[in-house]
Structures are given as structure tokens and as C-alpha cells.
Amino acid sequence: MIPRTLIDLSLHELPREQTDVIVIGAGIAGLFAAIKASEKHNVLLITKKSVYESNTRYAQGGIAAVFSEDDSPAYHRQDTLIAGAGLCSHDAVEILVHEGPEGVHDLIRMGTVFDEEENGTYALTREGAHSQRRILHAQGDATGYEIVRALAEKAKEDKRITVWDDHFVVDLVTDKRVCYGAVVQKPDGSKVYLEAKATILCSGGAGQLYRYTTNPEVATCDGIAMAFRAGAHIQDVEFVQFHPTSLCYPGAPRFLISEAVRGEGGVLRNIRGERFMEKYHEQLELAPRDVVARAIVNEMDETKSTFVYLDITHESPELIRHRFPTIYEFCLRYGLDMTTDWIPVAPAAHYMMGGVKTGLSGETSVKRLYACGEVSCTGVHGANRLASNSLSEAIVFGRRIIEHIENLDPISEEPQPEFDYDHQRKYPPTQAIVEKRLKLQKIMVRHVGLLRSEKGLRKAIEELKRQLPIYDSLLTKQEEYEFANLLTCALLTSQAALIREESRGAHFREDFPERDDIVWKKHILHQREHGVREEGHVDAGTIIK
Description:
It contains 14 helices and 21 strands. The radius of gyration is 22 Å and the shape is globular. Strand 9 and strand 10 (191-195) form a beta hairpin. By secondary structure, the chain is an alpha/beta fold. The chain folds into 3 domains: 11-239 and 353-405, FAD/NAD(P)-binding domain (3-Layer(bba) Sandwich); 247-348, Succinate dehydrogenase/fumarate reductase flavoprotein, catalytic domain (Flavocytochrome C3, Chain A, domain 1); 433-520, Methane Monooxygenase Hydroxylase, Chain G, domain 1. It is 31% helix and 17% strand.
């Protein structure tokens, strides 16, 4: 149903270039991994736009790590496991909470400047489902931008890192479940076979599956889709996190309103002005994201509205402007003043917990292929990501990937890639890609969003399968490759959501509203050659009472 490659040619037709390590993507995961790898290797960092355009750049809240004497790895572990709803990997979480602080120190050594208190200690905030203040931030609410700035500057200064902006990785090259590199399309449309000792997927997430998302245009599931085509295991993609509070205002994009606004005292009100979170969770506005998002949708339904309000007007204008300068200035562009106005918000697709399944060193089921950041599924997030754990995950497992690469032997033989076809694809897509993409996004919002059911999921799969002829078309443009990748990921997500007949974390089935640990405390895995399977019960570790 889904082909091995998106292009129909032989590798022998392509020019060949070599490097030691290929890094695909340039958010925090890609930049950090590239810098670490360059200590011993030549690195080619490939980004389809620029090193400054990624989900990381738009991360407002911060990075979670234990820096306070009142905090501990045990508390951080507990919060992560509770948010993950029974599907976290105990070993992966242990690694995150213990190695996270050193990873943050790495970022600081690389030039990242985090906010400090007047006494010189790092300023820490608290976000939803965290029991302690452990979120480091930069420039108030511009943490992602500051991290990207620092890492991009360091990468560009590194003589062992070559950056290819505006290049698109179309397919991975494999032979007998070993990855030897990738086929890359250059800005002029020509292609090159890039060969390497190791290939690291850092291509980000899947926000563009949905019409309403906090993600930038580049988040089109490319890494998940190309890894699936190459035979890697894909895990937990039914768990898509919707951020509860994105700006919902006429003429404005779905701009992220950071969870830190609620962490600093912001409250949610329905259009009647009533505060409502006490009806849904004891942690009120700081409940796990899936709880808050569904509560908002319920209030919207009950009040026949398309939004609720986020109110932080009771805090001082000085605190708001200092702590949230990016959000404050953005809202002002559209006539909203956070210091005096309630901000209209609604949920939007934000983060995919699943992705390319990895081991504890970022290794995938395809040898020499690694995954890091949102494209990966390390097991840290389980069924629901704890706020600000994603940036920590990227640096912790990015460093582990580079350590693992040191043990790889050099490539000793010429691969015989599973990549030769008979030039059967002769005609371009018959319908405009922009129309096909919008239709896919509407299907996902309607049937595979915050609230799901068997009827809706079957309808989604049926409608998505009508788009399958795209794989038989002659694809040559980036937008065509991106749509093919979105379609792959949409099908995987819909199928997994249909199979999981329970509600857990970010996955909510209206026809199975309860969590079922007896039957469903396990993972759903996709693998191209062998279809879908369920993997046994999860040991999610001990939660402190």
C-alpha cells in the first residue's frame, strides 16, 4: 500500500557524496547532535528550510530539569510517569531525569543564556502537571529561540559541520536492514546520494496533520514516514498532544500561548466569565494537558462557543510584560493587551508522543539509523508528554546517540540498496497538492482529533485511502513529498487510534471512555513489511505516593 520509496530511479543514476554523520533536521535535537558529533566526525546537517526554522524556535515555556534544592530526580520521575498514563519506559525516564541537568549545562556551555534571579540563581517556573518549579526559560518566553540562536551560531562556526539549507531528504537508503545514507533533493531539483557511517533523524513532528496547529509549516512527518518506508518500527502515534491554549482570534494565526502563563497564575474562563477547571481536575489549570484540552472543548460545546478565555489580568502589568514579552507583543499586534484583556484560546495540535521507536541510545530497528527529538519515540513521554520534557529529551538522547555511534565499525562493503524500480511513475499528481493537503487536515481534525470514535476513525481511514494514488504519481516537488509523508503518518495514526479501544493520555475514545490497564497497557507498533502489532504490557516504574 505504501511504497518503499517516493522516487522511481536507481541509485546508480545519481552522483554520490560521502560524510561521516548525516543529521536530518535542525531543531534542538539536530543542532545539538551535530555539535556533539563534530567533536570526532565530519557532519552534514540538512534542513529543508534553515537552521532557524523548527519547532524548537517556537518553544516558549522552557526546558525541564532538576536545578532546585527543593526538587529531585525522584519528583521529576513521578511527574513524568503520572503524565505518561502508564506507558512511559521506566528506564528512559530514569535516564532523562538524571542526565537532564548535565544536558542543560551543555547548552549553557554552548552559549545558551537562561534567565536568572537577582541573586544569580536560575529562574525556575512551574507548568502543568509538574509538582515543582523546574522549568528553566530564556528571555521570559523565548526559550526555544534562544537555544536555536546559540546552537546555530556554534554549528556555523564549527569547521567540521557543513550545513545544507533548503535541501529535502526524500528517502533513506538501506540494504538488509542497514541504513547507508539518504537521497537528497537540492534546491535546483537535482538529487544526490549521500552516504554516511550513521544517519540521525531529527526532523521534528507532525503538527501539519491538522488544520489547527501551533507547529510551523515544516512539521510534516517527514522522518516518521521515511523511516517507516525504510522498515523501522513506528510506535505510539495514536498519542497526539493538543496544546490547550492557542490564540483563537479573527485574523490571527494559531499562536501558542505558553503553559507558563497558567504556571504564573493565569486562569481559564468560559465565555460567560466562569472559571471552570475545578469541575474537571484537582490541579485546576495545571492539570495534564489532555485533561485541560478536553475540558476546554467541553466548555466550548456547552456554551456554543469556539473559544474560552485565558485570564492573567489579576497579575501586575510589570510581571506580565517581563515574563511574557513575546506573547504580550504578539497579542498587541491584534489589539489584545494581556494586562487588561482576557485572551481567547482554543486547543490546537502541538506534539506527537509517538514516532520512530528507539532504544536507550536513540538506535532504531534499522542499523546505523538513529532518531532524536520529536520524530523519535524513546518511551519518555508515554501516552502524554509532561510539559517541557521534550527539550530535555532531545539533548539527553542526542548525546547518547553520539556515544553509540563511536562503537560503529566503518562501512566495509558496497551496499545493494532496496532502491531500484522500473520507472513506472510517469505522471504528476492530478489534483493540486494544496487542495489534497487541506482535505487531509480537515479529515484529521474531524475524526482523529481530541475526541475519537470507531465510526469516525473508520471514516477517516476510508477517506484517507482515497488519496493513495499519490504514491503512484511521479513526485518531483517538495510539497508533493511532504503530502505523501503526511498521508503515511495520517494513516498510521488513524489505524493505531482505531485499534486502541480505550482512553489513555492524549488518546480519547468517546466509545471507550475509560482507561483499561488489563488489556491496553501496551504499545501499538507499525512496521511496513509486517503491518501492525501490539507489544506486551509495560513496566512503567514506581510512582511515589
